[in-house]
Design a protein that fits this description.
Length: 1893
């Protein structure tokens, strides 16, 4: 027993530990609970250790918890840190030098601890200044040097303006004296230019001195030098100027370095080149000789950009880049990498260099960047402003001459990598951190260290302690056992055998509870530790207490058999909230001041007044009765001493305070206004109800009007007469009973003959008036009680009717709108069947319900066919009618009959006639009950059986969204056709008030189905926000056939919605079947309901305030099949709708795929999705116009979703014949129901109203609308992606005025329309409503590419995710060194790139020959997407040759730098790379075109040309597809763009020296195609061409600008519509002129448009497969404006020279082959290539041969033709005798017996990269961007020609690099590249061939 007690105590201790763990969010102390005392103190801040021997809880825990567990304070050991200010001299503002305060601080930190320090800084207005000018001495800077020599005095003046204590120095640089940077010929080494010095790298000419005159004198002696290549070695010079003491930088002064050049720069890895060899990395040390010359230039590489940033920062040097316009962009990008730097544009002769210095210094003074230098790796630093907000790097705005204040927050990490911080190297956890502005020498020296305390008690252990049974040492109160011993007191030998008895706990019979193995010393090892725990495995983690079936209420976890609750919760099952927030009422009082808040819920007292209280103990008035009904009896007794509670004992329990007043308040000022008739005296009294303004008063306040309206007094003299008549009546009855034998059976008939006696039995409504609030209605009906008084013997049938909107006067506008009597409307009909109700009938999909529904339909359809134009009944459901007397368990049938509105009286008469007979055909009904309704009135009957005194009248309320704010209905008891009762209270008024709610609560669906196997039913409750704020709603479940605690666990409570919150989930636990129910074969359907009630804070209940939950034991699959086995259509039918039906399990969504079979023309497939509740949908096939022929084909259903199966009719046969119309339509036409268009003017429905669309998720949009007048059978919802043609819309068929669109694309714009339909056909559509789906997490980036710079430097780039699913906001790059087994061998580095446009990263200082794994992921507003990863070892990749050093537009990180450097990433604006630096990238992933972007870059010395084509992200993103025309033709739009033209080109030359020509073309994303409202131009090509400006003169005022857009829309093979947008013009546009001609020359045709409102023309006389040049210009009174040009080709699959070629404007057919497959070019030599192509997809016969033509693109030679025979899948041709650098156009046609088919075209250039002289125009840049609107009807193919001939505007040696990316490509662009490289002398010749086909 002793061991049991010890284990029990140990279990309790462990329980306490775990409970403590669960109740705390983060407790780092618990990680050291099994360690030593020192481990505990080093675990984290706040940890303490209890060394008391008898302490029974975990010894290591938070200090406050150790004390709470009872540890004696004297035995508590803890560590404390300190912060001491060592030096703190106040700032002296009179001293003109930079100062900080305090100067020195000493801080110690516990692991995880954070400390803050207040810092003051002061920057003087004119402090000490060191100015060092570093100048480029290449020959091009000669005039700049001459000007600087003349500026001696001006320079002194400028420096004196900046500072009163200054020094000035001068250095010069050129480049490394090594090939190829420098000409190494001896004469050039001696004097590269006339009157110049020998080349050099860097020389310190004048150290920093104060004497300006001496500075000027020394500067006069300097001469220029020179080098070969354009970039200079300025980086070498900057580094030497920073690190060398010979420069003379002073402490305490501001250090400025002015860097002046007109060229770009070399950077790291440019020293590693073919001729010079591989140079080692720069060592960042000073290497100046006695003459100030840099002597290591040829022995080490240039420094990298991160190196420069770090070195200049360490030496407090601020760079100022004074550069010419030619190199400005390079240095603008470089500037962004420095914390503080400035840049200015030099004039060509540097005459403005002094102004640049002055402006730069003023700008520098306005900025301040704070840094924490020399920070150990175990520390983190943040900088806060005076308001404690974190400030980004360089964003402090301290004014010179004033004291600035900020805070530095230092944090000691608990772990460095995966290692505890106390285990890392001392240098990583302690050191002196210099906190200072970047420009200061002064700094706050923070000596920071992390305390790794050890416990003194560990140094003095008690050896062989008695407490440890002599088998161990007592250390800090804990036994440390000797080897071979174990246990808390070392009382168990590990070698001794253990018996299972030691593992049996108190009250147990099995070892380890049968759940584990008994180990040595009686220790149990549980079989499943995830489920069982405890010293004897006696606790099951799944067996703690539950709430509503949920373990620990989902607010805690099960630990040691008890619930360990989360913060804010308590109780045995964590069911009690510690917060009182859920107990607050509308006044902010807890439980309305009446009850107590227990476990987060109010316990309300029993008032005894009969008034129900809400969950917050406020009076809760049910919507059926309202506040007036609840307070009526109390007001009656307190004000007038009448009514049911007139007894004083009953009246005093009322929670109503009555005040008598002379005048009542307005209805809007009170809770409610009431009016009733006192049944005691027939007086009418009125009162208002409101809540008391006194928060302590919990009663309702009723103000009662003193004056009552009472009827006049009766005539007393009639009393004797009445008594006499009553006596006479009694005598007559007695005689009838005594002497008439027949009277015994028909005495009731005798009473009926006596008018005075008929009043003995009366019927009438119980109440006079009902006041309802629309927000609280849960049904569209009101059960209105009707009562019967007098003798209850016999039966009475009462007929009633109700009319809507009786409050409207005849002149009301809506009353004046009389409905159309011919309008088809729905007539809801209710009958009571002579059949008892069963639970199966409540489930529509059950077999019983289906059979009864069919029986009802057959009989009712037979009866109602007497009504003209009546349709079949539908929507038949079955229910019970409560309070129906003795018929309460009979089945009520509800159905809907569609018929003309005028048929209402006939339907009522026919229904009443059949009900009286008790038969509807063969269907038995109960006489005396029916209801027939329209949308504005209803009639019916109810039955009082014998002994029944009250029944309910099921009155429809006609609730509609367009109801008035307050409407009234009048219900009238018309007559008693059967029985002797008279009508007493004939009328009842129903008033419905529509509030304007702030929120609307509703279930998403009216019913849900869950399987018992689900365990929990998750019921979503949505909130539609109208006015945002906090709000609440009450929910509760009620039994139907499912029973609480047997089938499910009932739940109730309040849901509190925070601002912006739109949905919450209520979990309901579903219970397993009992053993008894489990054996039942026919298990009854189990259902329960969940209701919403009591919405607060201005909210109301919405469409579904109640939902029915069905518990299915086994989910039956949906059965989907074709409705008919054969479908017949006519060739004249525009569409073929084939219906598919679904049965069973209709409450869940289901999907099935379909496809065509055995069809000559249709090769179609798709997916059909049924939304919950949908039972029938159509597969709609649209034949191609004009090509329909009689045909028979099949449709097949296959691959259903997991919850569905395909039924017996999985195939249907579709017959297309030449009949006039399909039989169904023809039959309706013959009856006059349908016109040839399918509708009649009188029968068409109006469009639905108020269409609204709301995105409910990334792939869902919810639609709702108002039904149109009439009787729609259903609705068709069309939806499509914005920008797609509407004819491609998907159609969803629904029966209710709402729809849920699913499986949409995330973050995509959709357009929707809705139309209603009935038997007459479809009505008109609504206007288009747009909606954008919500964002979703992005997909993985498209591909990773590596541009290997050197074995330690790589440029990583990636593509945008193919599915961005939103706006990408950032990328994260993670790179980790790994071994051959893909395991990490070092820490991972993460770099976040917060500019999504920068999809590149330059990583420097990687480990040589080390393999790295790189991962990239994208982020949007939803979160991070998955990673794309790749692995590469840079050493195995070829290194690059020397580059033209244009800094790449990418973040740069140093792999060897500390975390400090990773904390900031800077970038420039554009990606620029030199030609030879671009290697074929290493690509991960096999799809180059992964994100819909196609990039082509041309790079040449001094200039760049970039072309971007961005493809749509939609599935139609392929660049080559066909539009199937009426006769099989294909329309393709082709655009040729020539960037650089040679002599003789007809193109206009817009290139001027220094100019930029920009033409823009983009393929728009679908969601960006705004403004195209004309359906005729939806599928178009949009060309935007920003013309190069005329530099000579601007347009005269009033002359129109260029039309801003040309839009081409192909209307056929020879017809085209040309549209444009009206240009800007200060005066009215009078008209337009359209010119067009063949692109290769010919007659120019002109069309004049004299109407300025017209902006399009249609041209019919074009030739297919010919390119046309179009020009459009506008005219005003001032003349014609400039032209807009565009080139377009309508490509037809007909050769224009063929006899089959159509005449312009004529229809055409063809049977020739289609175009061959894509052309693939492979270079064989500089003057020959191999051309390969594939066989046409549609050969239309055997291919006889191919015709290949080749010609120079720009008319430079004769056309060459080749004939190639063969019918192979792939054909090749070798073409010799080509010329380098000349673009060629190749065309390939296939030939059959029918002639030649269309051409496949490709353009190719074999490029040579031979060195050539630079043109004087080499600084030009050309950019062309083309914009395409992609469509399924017209596809854009762009052929881009790149000419490399001798253009005087461009230099030789150009190279084009093409990158290709795309998303969802159907056909790929095939690219091959052949590279030949020869090294000859000092030049590199590279020959490449690029092509596009």
């Amino acid at each position: 027993m002793g061991s049991w007690s010890l284990r029990f105590l140990a279990g309790l201790g462990l329980l306490a530990v775990l409970l403590t763990c669960c109740s705390s969010e983060v407790n780092s102390c618990l990680t050291a609970r099994s360690g030593t005392c020192s481990d505990c103190l080093q675990a984290g801040v706040g940890c303490a250790y209890c060394s008391e021997e008898d302490f029974g809880f975990p010894r290591c825990d938070l200090h406050e918890k150790i004390l709470a567990h009872g540890c004696n304070a004297a035995y508590v050991i803890k560590a404390t840190s300190k912060q001491t200010i060592v030096q703190n001299e106040a700032i002296n503002m009179n001293l003109q030098r930079s100062q900080v305060s305090p100067q020195e601080v000493r801080m110690t930190f516990l692991p995880g601890e954070t400390r803050e320090l207040d810092v003051n800084v002061f920057a003087p207005t004119k402090g000490p200044l060191d100015l060092y000018i570093l100048m480029d001495f290449s020959n091009s800077m000669k005039d700049d040097l001459d000007n600087l020599k003349k500026m001696g005095n001006k320079l002194a003046t400028v420096v004196q303006e900046i500072s009163s204590d200054y020094t000035i120095g001068f250095g010069k640089f050129v480049d490394k004296v090594i090939e190829p940077q420098t000409d190494m010929r001896p004469d050039k080494l001696k004097q590269p230019w006339p009157d110049s010095d020998s080349p050099f790298s860097f020389k310190n000419v004048i150290p920093l001195i104060k004497d300006v005159n001496s500075f000027t004198a020394k500067l006069q002696k300097e001469r220029i030098s020179g080098n070969l290549d354009a970039p200079e070695g300025g980086f070498d010079a900057i580094l030497q100027a920073a690190v060398c003491k010979e420069i003379g930088w002073r402490e305490g002064s501001t250090h400025l370095l002015v860097f002046s050049t007109e060229s770009a720069f070399h950077y790291e890895a440019d020293g590693a080149n073919v001729l010079a060899g591989i140079l080692p990395r720069n060592d960042e040390a000073c290497h100046l000789d006695e003459n100030g010359v840099y002597i290591q230039a040829t022995k080490q590489d240039y420094p990298s950009i991160p190196t420069l940033v770090r070195v200049l920062g360490n030496h407090n040097i601020i760079p100022i880049f004074a550069v010419t316009n030619h190199s400005y962009m390079y240095y603008l990008k470089l500037k962004e990498y420095f914390p503080i730097a400035e840049i200015g544009v030099l004039q060509e002769d540097s005459s403005n260099i002094l102004e640049i210095m002055r402006d730069a210094f003023v700008s520098i003074q306005s900025k301040m960047s704070i840094r924490a230098e020399n920070r150990p790796k175990a520390f983190g630093a943040q900088f806060l402003d005076s308001s404690n907000k974190e400030v980004r790097y360089g964003a402090f705005n301290f004014k010179p001459g004033e004291i600035g204040k900020f805070k530095v927050k230092l944090t000691a990490q608990q772990k460095h990598g995966e290692q505890p911080v106390c285990k890392v190297d001392p240098g990583d956890k302690e050191g002196t951190i210099k906190v200072k502005p970047t420009t200061f020498d002064s700094a706050v020296n923070v000596k920071a260290s992390i305390l790794c305390e050890t416990c003194d008690c560990e140094k003095t252990p008690t050896l062989k302690a008695k407490r440890c049974n002599g088998k161990g040492n007592l250390v800090c109160g804990k036994c440390l056992c000797d080897d071979g011993w174990a246990g808390a007191f070392c009382n168990c030998s590990k070698t001794s055998g253990s018996t299972k008895d030691q593992c049996i706990g108190p009250g147990m019979t099995e070892s380890c509870s049968g759940r584990g193995d008994c180990q040595a010393c009686g220790t149990c090892v549980c079989y499943n530790p995830d489920q069982y725990e405890g010293p004897y495995c006696q606790y099951d983690k799944t067996q703690c207490q539950r709430v509503a079936g949920i373990l620990c209420n989902d607010r805690g976890s099960c630990v040691m058999g008890r619930c360990a609750c989360s913060e804010g919760w308590k109780g045995n099952a964590c069911e009690c909230s510690k917060s009182n927030e859920t107990c607050l009422d509308n006044k902010g009082k807890i439980c309305g001041g009446r009850g107590k808040c227990v476990c987060g819920s109010c316990q309300c007292p029993d008032t005894g007044s009969g008034i129900a209280l809400s969950p917050t103990c406020e009076p809760n008035f049910e919507f059926l009765r309202g506040v007036c009904e609840e307070t009526r009896k109390c007001v009656q007794c307190k004000a007038w001493k009448t009514g049911e509670k007139k007894d004083e004992a009953k009246c005093k329990d009322c929670l109503v305070e009555v005040i008598m007043v002379d005048e009542l308040k307005e209805r809007e000022e009170v809770l409610d206004s009431c009016r009733f008739v006192d049944e005691d005296n027939d007086c009418t009294y009125e009162y208002t109800v409101e809540t008391s303004k006194d928060p302590t008063n919990t009663k309702l306040l009723a103000e009662v009007l003193k004056k009552r309206d009472c009827p006049a007094a009766s005539l007393l003299w009639l009393l004797p007469l009445i008594l006499f008549l009553l006596l006479l009546l009694a005598l007559l009855l007695l005689c009838c009973w005594k002497y008439c034998a027949c009277c015994a059976s028909c005495w009731q008939n005798c009473l009926a003959l006596l008018p005075c006696c008929r009043g003995g039995r009366m019927v009438g409504f119980k109440e006079d008036e009902y006041l309802l609030h629309q927000s609280q209605l849960t049904s569209n009906h009101l059960n209105t009680p009707m009562v019967r008084t007098g003798p209850p013997k016999g039966t009475d049938v009462v007929r009633w009717k109700v009319k809507d909107n009786v409050h409207r006067v005849p002149s009301h506008p809506r009353e004046l709108m009389q409905p159309n009597p011919d309008e088809m409307i729905q007539f809801p009909i209710s009958l009571r069947l002579n059949r008892l109700f069963s639970e199966n009938l409540s489930r529509p999909e059950s077999k019983d319900a289906e059979q009864l529904r069919q029986e009802v339909a057959d009989n009712l359809n037979e009866v109602y066919k007497q009504i003209p134009e009546a349709q079949k009944v539908q929507q038949t459901l079955f229910r019970l009618q409560k309070n129906a007397g003795k018929r309460g368990n009979y089945t009520i049938m509800d159905t809907v009959l569609s018929a003309p509105r005028r048929a209402y009286p006939d339907i009522v008469k026919l229904t009443e006639k059949n009900v009286q007979s008790g038969n509807f055909g063969d269907l038995k009904v109960v006489p005396g009950y029916y209801t027939v309704a329209t949308d504005r009135e209803a009639a019916g009957a109810v039955e009082f059986q014998e002994d029944v005194e009250m029944v309910d009248v099921h009155v429809p309320l006609f609730v509609k969204d367009d109801d008035d704010d307050k409407k009234q209905l009048k219900v009238e008891a018309r007559d008693v056709p059967l029985g002797i009762a008279t009508i007493a209270k004939r009328f009842v008024n129903i008033t419905i008030i529509k509030e304007h709610a702030t929120s609307i609560f509703s279930f998403l669906q009216p019913k849900y189905t869950y399987s018992r196997k689900d365990g929990v039913a998750h019921i979503p409750i949505s909130r539609e926000i109208i006015e945002d704020g906090r709000t609440q709603v009450t929910y509760n479940t009620q039994d139907l056939s499912a029973k609480n605690k047997k089938d499910y666990m009932s739940v109730q409570g309040d849901l509190s919605y925070a601002p912006g919150e739109t949905e919450k989930i209520v979990p309901v636990r579903l219970l397993e079947l009992s053993e008894k129910d489990g054996f039942l074969e026919d298990k009854p359907i189990k259902q329960f309901v969940m209701d919403l009630s009591n919405p607060r804070q201005g909210a109301k209940l919405g469409r579904y305030p109640r939902t029915t939950v069905t518990i299915a034991d086994t989910q039956e699959p949906s059965v989907m099949m074709f409705k008919k086995g054969n479908q017949n259509f006519s060739t004249l039918d525009q569409t073929y709708p084939i219906p598919v039906v679904r049965s069973r399990n209709e409450d869940s969504p289901a999907t099935v795929k379909w496809r065509t079979k055995k069809s000559q023309r249709f090769d179609l497939s798709g997916s059909l999705k049924f939304a919950p509740g949908e039972t029938e949908k159509n597969i709609v096939i649209e034949p191609f116009p004009g090509s329909v022929q009689p045909e028979t084909f099949q449709l097949e259903l296959y691959d259903p979703s997991t919850n569905a199966v395909v039924g017996e009719r999985k195939n249907t046969v579709v017959n297309i014949t030449e009949e006039p119309r399909s039989p169904e339509i023809a039959q309706m036409q013959s009856k006059g129901y349908v016109s040839p268009r399918g509708t009649t003017p009188g029968g068409r429905l109006l469009p639905p109203g108020n269409l609204k669309a709301k995105a409910t998720g990334p792939r869902n949009i919810r639609l709702n609308w108002d039904p149109p007048p009439g009787n729609p059978v259903g609705y068709k919802v069309k939806y499509w992606i914005y920008g797609d043609p509407e004819k491609d819309a998907k159609v969803l068929d629904v029966r209710t005025p709402q729809a849920e669109l699913t499986n949409l694309l995330p973050f995509c714009d959709y357009e929707t329309r809705v139309c209603a339909y009935n038997s007459m056909g479809d009505g008109p559509d609504t206007n288009i409503v747009s909606c954008q789906t919500l964002e979703d997490a992005p997909g993985e980036p498209g591909r990773l590419a590596f541009n290997v710079i050197s074995p330690t430097v790589t440029q990583l780039s990636w593509a945008e995710p193919a599915e961005t699913n939103g706006d990408i906001t950032a990328y994260e790059v993670i790179y980790t060194p790994i071994d051959d087994e893909m395991k990490p061998v070092g820490g991972a580095k993460k770099v976040k790139i917060d500019n999504p446009k920068k999809r590149m990263l330059l990583i420097e200082n990687l480990q040589s020959a080390q393999t790295y794994q790189y991962k990239v992921r994208a982020q949007n507003s939803v979160g991070w997407g998955p990673c794309r990863d790749a692995t590469i070892n840079l050493a195995s990749q070829p290194s690059r040759p020397m580059s033209i050093p244009i800094i790449p537009d990418i973040p740069i990180v140093d792999a060897e730098a500390g975390d400090e450097y990773d904390s900031y990433l800077m970038y420039s604006n554009d990606v620029l790379k030199s030609p030879t630096s671009s290697k074929t990238p290493s690509v991960s992933g096999d799809d180059y075109m992964s994100n819909g972007r196609w990039e082509q870059n041309f790079l040449f010395p001094g200039g760049s040309t970039t072309r971007n084509l961005s493809a749509s992200s939609s599935p139609m993103s392929t660049l080559s597809s066909n539009y199937k025309g009426g006769a099989g033709g294909s329309f393709t739009t082709e655009m040729h763009t020539t960037y650089m033209t040679g002599p003789g080109s007809p193109r206009r030359r817009d290139m001027i020296g220094g100019g930029i020509h920009t033409t823009e073309v983009l393929m728009r994303k679908r969601s960006e195609n705004r403004g195209y409202t004309d359906e005729n131009i939806r599928d178009s090509i949009v060309i935007g061409d920003d013309k190069f400006p005329d530099l000579n003169a601007r347009l005269s005022p009033g002359v129109p600008d260029t039309p801003s857009r040309l839009v081409f829309s192909a209307l056929g093979p020879t017809a085209l519509k040309v549209s444009w947008q009206e240009p800007h013009c200060e005066k009215d546009v009078l008209g337009y002129c359209v010119l067009y001609q063949l692109l290769n020359g010919g007659e120019t045709k002109r069309l004049n448009v004299t109407n300025p409102a017209e902006n399009s023309v249609v041209i019919h006389d074009l030739l297919p497969n010919h390119s046309y040049l179009f020009k459009v210009k506008a005219q005003s009174q001032e003349g014609w404006g400039p032209e807009r040009e565009g080139v377009i080709t309508i490509e037809s699959a007909v050769d224009p020279k063929s006899p089959l070629s159509p005449m312009p404007g004529s229809p055409f057919t063809l049977s020739t082959p289609s175009a061959p497959g894509p052309l693939v070019f492979t270079a064989l030599s500089p003057d020959s290539l191999q051309l390969t192509w594939e066989k046409p997809r549609k050969p239309n016969g055997d291919i006889l041969s191919y015709r290949v033509t080749c010609e120079q693109l720009h008319d430079g030679g004769d056309m060459r033709s080749f004939n190639v025979s063969g019918n192979n899948a792939e054909t090749s041709l070798t073409v010799p005798n080509l010329t380098e650098n000349v673009p060629y156009k190749f065309k390939v046609q296939a030939q059959t017996t029918q002639g030649f088919g269309p051409e496949r075209e490709g353009i190719i250039t074999i490029e040579s990269q031979d060195g050539g002289a630079l043109s004087q125009y080499n600084s030009q840049s050309v950019t062309r961007r083309d914009v395409f609107q992609m469509s399924p009807e017209m596809t854009t193919r762009t052929n881009v020609s790149h000419t490399m001939i001798n253009d005087p505007y461009f230099s030789d040696g150009m190279m084009m690099t093409q990158f290709t990316e795309t998303g969802s490509m159907v056909s790929r662009q095939v690219t091959r590249e052949v590279v030949q490289r020869n090294v000859t002398g000092a030049s590199t010749v590279t020959k490449r061939m690029f092509y596009e086909s």
